[in-house]
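Posting for a labmate who doesn't have an account.
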Amino acid sequence: MWLRLVNRKSTFLVCILQVNTGDLYGFLRLPNRDANSFIYMLILSGATYLCRKSIPGMRSVKMLNLHAQYLGLKDEIDAAIATVLERTDFIGGQDVIEFEKELAAYHGATHAVTCANGTDAIQIALMAMDLPPGSEVITPAFSYAAIAEMCHLIGLKPVYCDVDPHKYLMNLEDAEKRITSKTRVLAPVHLFGQNAHMESILALAQKHNLYVLEDNAQAIGAVYTFADGKKAKSGSMGHVSTTSFFPSKNLGCYGDGGAIITSDEKLAKRCKMIANHGQSVKYHHEVIGMNSRLDTLQAAILRVKLRKLDGFASERLAAAKYYDRELGAIPQIQIPVRAKNSTHVFHQYCMVLETPKLRGGLQEYLKNRGIPSMIYYPLPLYKQEAYRQDISLPVTEHLCDRIMALPMGTDMETEQLEYITSNIKNYLSTLT
């Protein structure tokens, strides 16, 4: 059904509003409907669809607009790349050395060891611990597969625990129940942009003499506050942490990259050797290693972006606050809950819908209006074919069925945020 609003004097087409069958069905279910409410329904349901181009200068909505971010950094990025091309120190060059120093300093740590990607970083960190075969690593089942993948690859066993239903972070009570004589590592994931409860995790690890490996791929720059008021950057509190510089990350390069952060001298030395074929002196191999490097071009780009990282976080937080304000009072939506002892850098803005059916309907509705969304994550790790275990974690399964991420980034325009949230509210209004 189409409604055309026409200026009869100039026959100028102002806009075209589309009403789909779902919108019309929602209207027909309303009591006391009349002609005025029908027209109102048409305008409400269609105004943000094909008329979005009537918002002056509004860009198309993307999950993350890396091009817009690049344009804001173009002069610095281009100059950094040009400098590397002039020096031709493409492997292990000056920018790699300087970036490792700057990254360690940013975290308040003594060592940063760069590598080819975030998954390699996890493998290197676990290998550096020199654990017995079959050692157990406790990690949340509601997460990406990288920790589980690396455990299996090097002969360790991932043990999955449940997560907090509001913050999606490691449930310490559940994790502690899973500690056995073979447990060697607690591997919390700072999911979506905020720290897990590190004070309790560190205490639990100390109690059972365990390593703590922080997966910090999604929360770089977040700040954790201990009970005594002491503050620490995410990725600086455990024995070792890992991060990814995949382009979509808060600190992302223009290819791939990763790093290990630690203030443990022994672990730092082993990580550096393992990342470089197990050698600290060329052609002298002390341990089994791998070939995992961050190239100099990527390091040069990351040096520029590291200086902007806290500003990026502020921009993401502003977008998150807009979402909170517009969506927080909707009963069918649980917006992200902030941990009281951690700042949030919003790698993702993930809301939880009331039912799986509601999520599916909303995602399709937004897609038809040019609004992308993502599901992080659709399956618990223990239900993945490669990592299957016969367990059930209720919160993890609840989240996998209902969670949905909205567009998030450093260059979100108010018009885009308004367009996204008005369409969400519009869809939900048709169901009441």
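Reply:
Got it, the structure tokens are right above this. Residues 1-33, 35-54 have pLDDT under 50 and may be disordered.
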